Automatic annotation (TrEMBL):
Chief place where the protein resides: membrane
Residues annotated as transmembrane: 14-34, 54-75, 87-108, 129-154, 160-179, 191-209, 246-267, 288-308, 352-379, 400-422, 428-450, 457-476, 488-510, 543-564
Family per similarity comment: Belongs to the sodium:solute symporter (SSF) (TC 2.A.21) family.
Keywords assigned by UniProt, alphabetized: Membrane, Transmembrane, Transmembrane helix
Protein name per Swiss-Prot or TrEMBL: Sodium:solute symporter family protein
Membrane topology: Multi-pass membrane protein
Classification via InterPro entries: Na/Glc_symporter_sf, Na/solute_symporter, Na/solute_symporter_CS
Xref: Gene3D superfamilies: Sodium/glucose cotransporter
Subcellular location as annotated: Membrane
Lineage: Bacteria, Bacillati, Actinomycetota, Actinomycetes, Pseudonocardiales
């Protein structure tokens, strides 16, 4: 065992193991209870569209609180400091509000079962197939990253072999997702949200106490590698990799805040699926907006512990941090991905340790379950049913969904090895988003607001946009283009968006559009306002259930946080 592995080993005792066992039993119990409500494929894949907004809202945010989010953002906090908050306040909140107010009426109102199915109705089969395949591939790659982190953490914390950790984690997630479908995943995500907060909040409080409060943290960060620049979110030059302030802000606002963010939150079926499980149009609109409230505060329990680790943990502070920031190996052998684990090791007593470990496992399983439940829906409906086995019984597709969930789990075990090659998994994640989400957002936004856009333009724009993001990645990897930090993903996302738009407009000019009658409910200008309106009676009544008002409150808080930090 390496010196670092020994240092990371947590002194877990009987009480910690009892807490872990209780948590696993609870998770599987929820899956078993949810199974009793699954009688059709709609129940399995979309919870029968029956869940209240507060449940889908918390599940919406928990589905995004996977291993990569918790560990990756803590790693970013240790490496870049407060500029990492842009992933929340610029790179999430505006897009989540846009999804709730503008796009959910189209998704929910058209009664589609997935985002690729929306593409099928708007652009036809070629765009549908391209989107279905690219989404399925992305989910397997991201599920693999969640699984790799889970296995490596359990190995380091508890000493279990990597293969045991991988199989145990995969079997538990597979069990409750295959048993109860989306309902099991969503109810577990609500539980996991509270477990994650219960694990991370004490870490922030105890960590700040250790470094002398916020002022003590400011002093230590200012004196360390990276300096005072890590205490202000703007202009974020270290994060973007740009030396020029204007280019850095432009990269953050356009690359992250517009293309990557809107591409992820508005077209990523992992998130949209949670809102589509809501019981009404109003609840579907409120789902991402309710999720935005806890999202606003996540930097304080995810990024701040990373910053504390970067100045207080011996293996990451001083010369170790300086070496890692220069792209070199730290003398201690640690990486920024270890920030949260090392802080847990230093600060938490037994009992609290069990909750923290459960919180980490919860974040990994929430992320992986979200990937699996969206993968099985898209693969079953948009690939298997649409192109391979048509017109079978509903029971057949329900069985297929369960088999596909198992197959996806096995594939995720394979892709975990790709993720293992990255020292900061946020780099990997943002790269995937620039490939898959940025071009899809361009196609979506054009198709939703421009009725003239043609089916041929839909799929050609997607393919060329994705190819341009891959080209930027290859240029950066081979050293032809020097893009340090996460600059390659920002530039790649921007390139994918621009190329997609240009190609789509050019192709539209020389190809035939669909008849307007076929675009009602799919294009903004052709959809009657009453189809997009929400109910204001019964369970949807009350000013506090008004999506527009809730979105306005979130927006004001976001602006204030950007000014303060």
């Amino acid at each position: 065992m390496s010196v670092l592995a020994q240092d990371l080993r947590l002194d877990a005792n009987a009480i910690d193991y009892v807490l872990l066992a209780f948590y696993f039993v609870l998770v599987l119990g929820i899956g078993y209870l949810a199974r009793r409500q699954v009688s059709t494929s709609l129940d399995f894949f979309l919870s029968g569209r029956s869940l209240p907004a507060w449940v889908t809202g918390l599940a919406f945010i928990s589905a995004n609180l996977g291993a990569i989010e918790v560990m990756g953002m803590s790693a970013n906090g240790a490496q870049y400091g407060m500029p990492t908050a842009h992933y929340f306040w610029i790179g999430a909140i505006p897009a989540m509000l846009f999804l709730g107010i503008v796009m959910m009426p189209f998704y929910y109102g058209s009664k589609v079962r997935s985002v690729p199915e929306f593409m099928l109705r708007r652009f036809g089969k070629p765009a549908h197939l391209v989107n279905g395949i690219s989404f399925a591939l992305a989910q397997i790659l991201i599920a693999g990253a969640n699984l790799f982190l889970l296995a490596s953490v359990v190995n380091l914390l508890l000493g279990w072999p990597i293969w045991v950790s991988v199989i145990l984690a995969a079997v538990i997630v597979l069990a409750y997702t295959a048993l109860g479908g989306l309902s099991a995943a969503i109810y577990n995500e609500v539980l996991q949200f509270f477990v994650i907060v219960a694990a991370l909040l004490p870490l922030t409080i105890v960590g700040l106490y250790k470094v002398g409060g916020w002022e003590g943290l400011v002093d230590k960060v200012t004196a360390g590698p990276g300096g005072a620049e890590q205490l202000n979110s703007w202009p974020g030059n270290q994060l973007t990799g740009f030396g020029d302030n204007f280019l850095s802000v432009l990269g953050l606002v356009f690359g992250l805040g517009f293309v990557l963010s809107f591409g992820y939150w508005t077209t990523n079926f992992v998130e949209v699926q949670r809102a589509m499980a809501s019981k009404s149009m109003s609840a579907a609109q409120r789902t991402p907006i309710i999720g935005a409230f806890p999202k606003l505060l996540m930097p304080f329990i995810v990024i701040v512990p990373g910053m504390i680790a970067g100045v207080s943990v011996a293996e990451l502070a001083g010369e170790n941090k300086a070496a890692l920031m220069n792209g070199e190996a730290a003398p201690s052998g640690a990486t920024f991905n270890n920030a949260l684990l090392l802080l847990m090791r230093d600060l938490l007593p037994n009992g609290m340790l069990g909750i923290a470990i459960a919180g980490l496992l919860a974040s990994f399983m929430a992320g992986m379950a979200a990937n699996l439940s969206s993968f099985n829906t898209v693969f079953t409906y948009d690939i298997w049913q649409a192109y391979i086995k048509k017109d079978r019984s509903d029971a057949y597709y329900l069985r297929t969904g369960r088999v596909v969930t198992a197959a996806a789990t096995i594939l995720a075990i394979g892709t975990a090895f790709i993720a293992s090659t990255y020292s900061n998994l946020m780099d990997y994640l943002q790269q995937l988003f620039s490939f898959f989400n940025a071009p899809l957002f361009a196609t979506f936004i054009l198709g939703m607001f421009w009725k003239r856009m043609t089916p041929t333009a839909g799929w050609l724009g997607l393919v060329t946009g994705t190819a341009s993001a891959v080209a930027v990645f290859l240029l950066a990897e081979t050293g032809v283009w020097d893009l340090p930090g996460q600059g390659a993903s920002f530039v790649g996302a921007g390139a994918a968006f621009v190329v997609d738009v240009v190609v789509s407009v050019a192709v539209t000019m020389v190809t035939r559009p669909k008849p307007e009658a076929q675009l009602v409910g799919l294009v903004y200008s052709l959809t009657p306002r009453e189809t997009l309106s929400r109910s204001t009676t019964g369970e949807d009544a009350g000013w506090y259930r008004n999506p527009g008002l809730l979105a306005g409150i979130v927006l004001v808080i976001t602006i204030v946080l950007n000014i303060i930090f």
